Amino acid sequence: MTKDRSGILQGTLDLMVLKTLDAMGPLHGYGIARRIEQLSQEVLVLNQGTIYASLVRLLQKGWISGAWGASEHNRKAKFYSLTKRGRKQLSAETENWERIAGVMGRVLHLAARR
Amino acid sequence: MFDALRVVISRIRGCFRLRRLDDDFQQELDSHLVLLTEENLRRGMTPEEARRAARVRLGGVAQLRETHRELHGLPWLETLAQDIRYALRMVRKNPGFTAVVVVTIALGIGASTAVFSVVDPLLFRRLPYPQDDRLVSVGYLGPVDNNEFNVTSSYFDWRQAQAAFLSLTAMKPASACDVLVGDSPQQVKCYSVTANFLETLRIVPVIGRDFSAEDDRPRAPTVALLSYGFWQTAFGGDPKVLGKTITLNEDPAQVIGVLPKGFEMPQLGDVDVMLPARLDASLPRSANSSSFLRTFARLRDGVSMEQAREMLRPLFQECLIKDVPAELRSEVRLVVRSLRDRQIQEVKLASWWLLGSVLALLLLACTNVANLMLARAEARRQELAMRAALGAGRGRLIRQTLTESLLLGLLGGAVGCGAAWVLLRLFVNLAFEEMPRLDQARIDLRALLFALAGSIAAAVLFGLAPALERPRAETLVGWHVAGSARTLFRKALVSAQVAISLVLLTGASLLIRSLGKLENQALGYQPEHVLTASFALRRRRYLPAAAQTTFFDQLEAKLKRIPAGGSFALSDSIPPRGSMGRPYSNLRISGHPPVARDGGMVEFRWVTPGYFQTMGIPILSGRAFDEAERASGESPVILSASLARRLFGSENPVGQQIELDGNGHWCPIVGVAADAKNNGLTAPSDPEYYRLRMKGSDRGTGTGVALFRTSLDPATLMRWVRREFAALDPTLPVKIETMDERVDRFRERPRFVAILVGLFAALGLLLAAVGLYGVLSFLVARQTREIGVRMAIGARPRDIAWQVQKHAGIWTGIGVAMGLAGSFTLARTIRGLLFEVSPTDPISLIAAVTVLVVTAALAAWIPSSRAARVDPVIALRSE
User: Fold this and answer.
1) Cis peptide before B576 (omega within 30 of 0)
2) Can you tell me the ipTM of this complex?
3) Largest CB tally within 10 Å, which of A5, A57, B360, B812?
4) Residue A1 belongs to a domain
5) Sign of the CA dihedral with B106 first, then B110, B116, and B119 last
6) How many domains does chain A have?
7) Measured between beta carbons, which residues in chain A are less than 8 angstroms from residue B25?
8) Domains of chain B: which residue ranges?
9) pLDDT at position B481, please?
């Protein structure tokens, strides 16, 4: 499993970005980063720049699309939104993640009981 | 899977928009920073603090951009672009170095590409038949013909009983035929083939149909297939030609189809019209066993050539007894060989040798460039060490050096393609007449691919040596630490060059010496000042033997009247070719025991009395024929010296009686003539006898050669002779040439090979000399200081020069030893190309070594004398 420079698993960050976009609708990079931090109850403090590597990967796979627009304070910002393929991918990945998380939980629980 | 592809596509697109994406990203980061700063301000930070905290939160902008760029483009492509840019800069900045490298490589690539384009159709390219590697030529190989033949009766038996082939097919030898298309008569090349001929080759007519079994029955009405070319020229490619009737040899023939464009006869003959052979199995065996064929076959799947030969052997033995005269049996063997070998047998060895020697030349060129690159790497050591110290990875440095050599290699290759084009013109002009498939030699895609592959291989070869050198930090301060290993490598390269060059030189000197022997050998006749005019009477026009006799008598009378200022003769054939030959065992001499059964072949010719004088063949004993005898009933015979010796030993043959054809007709032997080369120039001559052409005789009149020994300008005489022939039969093709030209044709092939290998050897020698010179100069330059010290403490210039020479001597010596070993190893392969010269001929070897050593000494002399002139004061001050 490859880690990027933030120390988070690449795929994990990508999935979080996808989920955020799914929940919030179109967002700019700053918004996504803030949202992830808030959702993790500030447990996860990102080096916010790392979000962009994740965005480029997702763009290249065609799971999200990006367009320039105006932010809430009328500033120019690039907004990302989930594509149809991205949504499909998200549900597949979520299912996958939950299964793995379940398995991991059971395994770790088992180990702890011993 | 699809996602991966999508990523690659998007990355490739990214490559082209890198700058825009970069600017975009910068803007995005800017706006991100602004938003972060605003948030920090809301939390109550001072603007200064807010901006700083925002930057920390976001992370290093430069690093982010770098990552972003890597994600967007294809990083290896970018480094490649960078390497190429760098390499181009090096190429531009060192025009002298670049020029030398490019010219050297261009020389190697050009020569090898040109040779490749000549030998590729011979050795490698597929023959124009489906599954061409399953096609074989089969038959008897006898003493008369270099190629295997067959006879009709054997063909019938083999076809019936063989199990090795999917099909066995036959063709008759080529014949010229007269075609009447509309009203205009033309002479074309005809081949008669059995019905399964095209089927065996797996060739289908472009229009119309193939021969059927019906067409091929004896006495079936004549049908014909036209070649594509003949169809175009004679009928303008009109498809309505099918079903039309053409007049062939004064008989009607119906056109049933057209052969595909580019169709080749399997023995590479030209074909205009193809006819069914209509072989007749009902004829008596004696008749069918004297009608000659060429037979080809397609191997059954899973049967190898060797297996096929063994499977056919019992049949061969059986038919040998039935069809081959007893006295020839021991000299006839079975041949099954690939169609390619059948086509190129004469030139196969020469082709491989040419290709081998030109590749050796390319190798020499590579070695030279490798040496140059090493010398330059030496000069760039500090630069490379600096780059390594600044963080360039080892792999990156190797890649960059290789990129540069690849660029040089490709440049050289491109120039080389131009050189190849020029060289190919030269080769084609030099090539001998019967060189097969020469018309197919061109710089085409295959040749260009060869050139490309050659350039890349060369670049890797010469680029790898400097690339593998590990830059060391020590070199930054100018210490010569890594040098010794590298100079050792360079010396080894020089020795290798000397070795390769010596192998080439030995080959060339052997071939040239062999050519010299060929040109200076005693022919047994004097070809100078002799003009020949040869012709063949076409069957139909001269069908009654009387018509031929009349023609010959009239021709003799007419030609005799030409004031050529010398002698004149008429023969049915002339040296250096033989005639059809007869078995030696046919001969009987009166009052002597029968001759040996296995005596090989004896040549014979029908000649007029002037023959010996005109050809310049001396009569050793007895006398020449005389004019008066021609009307007598006698059939006088003159023997060649070797035949006389064989038949009579030390006895005097003149006055003895000999029976020539086993027909009870005894002929008096009137003289003995000197031996003449009659089996080409290289093969040993056969014994020979001469018979006198009688007035009004119909013997030996199908073909003829008129001979003039003349003091006239050949061109003038040629005109006169042509006029006399035209007066008798304007449609008769006559080939007029001097005897010298005729003989010289037999030397064309060895000359071509010798010139080419000689040329490559000379170029190779030059390259080796340049290589030696380069390394020595380099060493002298590096040791200037040391030399200065030695001179300062009393060494004489002579000692210094001697020391440099000694170095050169050692490497050359090692190279010569390796080269000699190589030459001895390769000796076996060149034997077939040599005439009366052993492959380990000491004179050739000594000549080659001498040339090499002298050249090496010359190459070493310049740097050694430069070393001797070093001024100690300047040398010591310079560093």
Assistant:
1) yes
2) 0.83
3) B812
4) no
5) negative
6) 1
7) 52
8) 2-73, 134-343, 348-519+748-878, 538-731
9) 45
Tokens of B385: 């060490």
Rg of chain A (C-alpha set)? 16
Distances (CA, A) of B273 to B227, B250, B683: 6, 15, 35
Of B31, B64, B67, Cβ closest to residue A76 = B31
pLDDT in tens, B76-105: 777 788 888 888 888 888 888 888 889 999
Helix axes B348-379 and B748-782, enclosed angle (nearest 10): 10
Residues 6 or more apart whose CB falls under 8 angstroms from that of B406 comprise: B456, B459, B460, B463
Cβ-defined contact of B71 to A78 (cutoff 8 Å):
no
- B→A contacts (Cβ < 8 Å), by residue, are 3, 6-7, 10-11, 24-25, 27-29, 31-32, 34-36, 38-39, 57-61, 63-64, 67-68, 71-72
Give CA–CA dist B614/B788, Å, rounded.
Answer: 76
Which residue among A48, A57, A78 sits closest to B58, beta carbon to beta carbon? A48
* Residues contacting residue B519 through CB under 8 Å, at least 6 positions apart: B747
The segments of chain A whose pLDDT lies below 70 read: 1-10, 46, 111-114
Q: Which residues of A touch B (CB under 8 A)?
A: 5, 28-30, 34, 47-50, 52-53, 56-57, 59-62, 71, 73, 75-78
Chain A: residue nearest B3 by CA?
A: A61
pLDDT value of residue B293: 92
Model pTM above 0.80: no
Q: Find the residue in A nearest to B29 (Cα).
A: A49
Residues 6+ apart with CB under 8 A from B807: B776, B779, B860
Q: Is the residue at A5 inside a domain?
A: no
Check residue A1 and give its pLDDT. Answer: 39
Structural domain boundaries enclosing A66: 10-113
> What CATH number is given to the structural domain containing A45?
1.10.10.10
Asked if residue A100 is part of any domain, the answer here is yes
CB contact under 8 A, A61 and B25: no
- What is the DSSP secondary-structure string of B492-546? HHHHHHHHHHHHHHHHHHHHHHHHHHHHHS--SS--TTEEEEEEE--TTTT-SHH
Closest residue on chain B to A29 (Cα): B32
Distance CA B38, CA B157 (A): 104
Contact residues, chain B, for A62 at CB < 8 Å: 3, 6, 10
Partners of residue B60 in chain A, C-beta under 8 Å: 49
Question: What is the phi-psi region of residue B219: left when phi exceeds 0, alpha when psi lies from -120 to 50, beta otherwise?
Answer: left
* B767-804 CB burial, b ≥16 within 10 A, e <16: bbbbbbbbbbbbbbeebbeebbebbeeebeeeebbbbb
β-pairing verdict for B333-338 and B568-571: unpaired
**Is B467 in a helix, a strand, or coil?**
helix
Contact A71 B35 (CB under 8 A): yes
Strands B637-640 and B666-673: parallel
Residue of A nearest to B34 (CA): A75
Q: Confirm if B704 and B555 have CB atoms less than 8 A apart.
A: yes
Residue B260 to residue B244: CA distance in whole angstroms: 19
Which residue in the set A49, A60, A73 is minimally distant from B10, CB to CB? Answer: A60
SS3 B26: helix
Taking an 8 Å cut-off on Cβ atoms, the answer to whether B3 and A61 are in contact is: yes
Cβ distance B32 to A30 less than 8 Å, yes or no, reads yes
Question: In chain B, which stretches have pLDDT less than 50?
Answer: 479-482, 879
Closest residue to A61, CB basis, from B6, B24, B59: B6
Per-residue confidence (pLDDT) for residue B474, from 0 to 100:
55
Q: Do the beta carbons of residue B868 and residue B788 sit within 8 Å?
A: no
Q: Report chain A residues whose CB lies below 8 A from the CB of B57.
A: 47-48
